[in-house]
Write a structure and sequence with these properties.
Helix content: 40-55%
CATH topology: TIM Barrel
Number of domains: 1
Mean pLDDT: 92
Shape: globular
Number of helices: 11
Oligomer: single chain
Number of strands: 10
Low-confidence stretches: 145-151
CATH superfamily: Aldolase class I
Largest sheet: 8 strands, parallel, barrel
Strand content: 15-25%
Structural class: alpha/beta
Order of helices and strands: HEHEHHEHEHEEEHEHEHEHH
Length: 284
Amino acid sequence: MPLVSGSTLLAAADKDGYAVGAFNVNNLESLTAIVSAAEGERSPVILQASQGAIKYAGLEYIAAMAQVAAARATVPVALNLDHGTSFTQAMQCIRAGFTAVMVDGSRLPYRENAALVSRVVEVAHAVGVSVEAELGRIGGTEDDVSVAEREEVFTDPEAAARFVAETGCDALAVAVGTAHGVYRGEPKLDFERLAAIDRLVAVPLVLHGASGVPDGAIREAVRLGVRKINIDTEIRLAFAASVRSTLAADGSVYDPREILGPARQSMEEVVREKMRLFGSAGRA
């Protein structure tokens, strides 16, 4: 089936109380691992491309691979720009065929963030593309986007409600204690804040930096209104561990297929586990 909009997937998730996994794509192996997992679990899925992925693989290649994968898939697939930082980049992705864009103006003053998101929303909605925004600063590093711990600011519930009403965004990423990258300790999510945001905000909420968050915390976040959960680091770690294991077992291996095939399987296993955890398995 063709790629679907992100808002289509999140509306269904919001109606039935589960979250859709958004998994980062960097190459063919990661993309096919994610889509194969979605088929195996009968789960809707969001493919994501970050700043780094676009630089590495190329915007046109990522869009074309996702379109082929979606056309062959029997489950709904969306393609999202992850942490876009400019109006121009959002437009480039929309022209390339992305069905959702996340525009990250969280490091801007409130008014500038709202103005950027509103401008993207105006164009994106005209062509059926959904828009995710972010309010509050999520710590850690996501490719070219980095926020030091001292800069991290949790999302204010009342400001979040005002921001969504002013911008017309379709989903909101919130800062409630997660971080991008590898955690140095166990993350502590502010569930009281998350519940307050969900009470006041009319659109689905998004949890970034979910790799490494304990399963119990993820389930509670979903119960409190999170409908999109981003996973990247755990997929990368599975890939790297598999490649190291393959080469350590046989240093004479040189065929990329013999190295990347097991790595693709390892990534798929991670994605399938997350889909079951998020409650999206069996929802396609």
